[in-house]
Amino acid sequence: MKITIKLWLLPIMLLTVSLLKGADIPYLSGRVNDYAQILSPQTRQALTENLRAHENSTTNQIAVLTIPTLNGESIEDYAVQVFEEWKLGQQGKDNGVLIVVVPNDRRMRIEVGYGLEPLLTDGRAGRIIQSIMTPRFKNGDYDSGITEGVLAVIAVLEGGQLPESMGETSQGKSFLEFEGPDLPLRERILFGAFIFTIIGLFTAIGIFTPGAGSWFLYFFLIPFWAMFPIIVLGTGGAFICLICYLLLFPLLKLIIRNTKWYKKAKKDLRRKGRANIGGFRISSGGSGRSWSSGGSSFSGGGGSSGGGGASGSW
After folding, report:
1. What does each C-alpha distance from 218 to 42, 211, 246 come to in angstroms?
2. What is the pLDDT of residues 106-140, one digit of tens each?
C-alpha cells in the first residue's frame, strides 16, 4: 500500500519540481542562439557575420540568445546565469555582451560585462531597448528588432556613441503610451499592490471624510499620485493616474455629499466631535481629523558580468 502511494506521489513531485524550476541554460551553439525560432536563416547568418567581424577587430564577444519562456524566472537573474555559464568575453578583459529575448514573456535584456560597462552603460543599453528594439518587437518584427539592436550595440562599442537613427524611431512615441519601467512583472505587481493600497486608502479617507480636512488631504496627495505610480506604470501611466485622481476625487465628493450617511456623519462631527463611517470612527479636534478602526494598524517596508545592463518589455 505504501509503495503504491509513493508511485502515485512521484509524478506529482516531479511535476512540482519542474514548475518551480526556472528555464534551463541552453548550449552555446554560436554567436546567435535562436532557441525560440523567431529569426529567419538569413538574419541569423547576417548577425553571425557582423558579430564575428566585430570580435575580430575588437576582441569583444557578443552573443544573442532567444528562448521561448523563462517559466516565471527573473530575466536579470537568468541573463547573469547564462553569461557566467557561457563565459562571454576575454579572460582579464570581461568584454562580453549578452542579448536575451524571451518572446512569450515579452521581455528582453542586454547584459554587459565588467570591462564594457564604461562604454555600454545602463542608460545606453536602456535606450537601445526602448528606442530600437521595443517598437519593432511590438510590430512582430523580430528580425529587424534584434538586428538593429545588435548593430546599435556594436556602434556604441566601436564608436562610443549611439547611432543617430535612434532619434527617428523614438519621435513617434506618444507621451501617454504606457511605457513600463525595467522591472519584472512580479516585482511590478508587488510594488503596485504596496503603493496603490497606501495612497488608495488615504484617498478613500479624504473622499468619505466630511469637512475642510478632506480637501487638505486632496491637495496633499497630489505629489504622491504624480510620482509613485511611475515605479509601476511608467511616466505615461502615472500621468493618466494623476488626471483621474484630480477629476474623480472632487466628483465623488459631490456625489456622496447629499447621501444620508454623509449628512449624518457631518452633523455628528459638529455636535459630538466624532462620527462612524463604514466601521471607522472619525473624530474632530480643532481643525484636524483623526481616524481609527478599533485599534487596527498597518505597516510596510521595504568573463563575468557586473550585473550592468538594462531590461525591457513590449
Report:
1. 58, 12, 8
2. 999 999 998 898 889 888 899 999 999 999 999 99
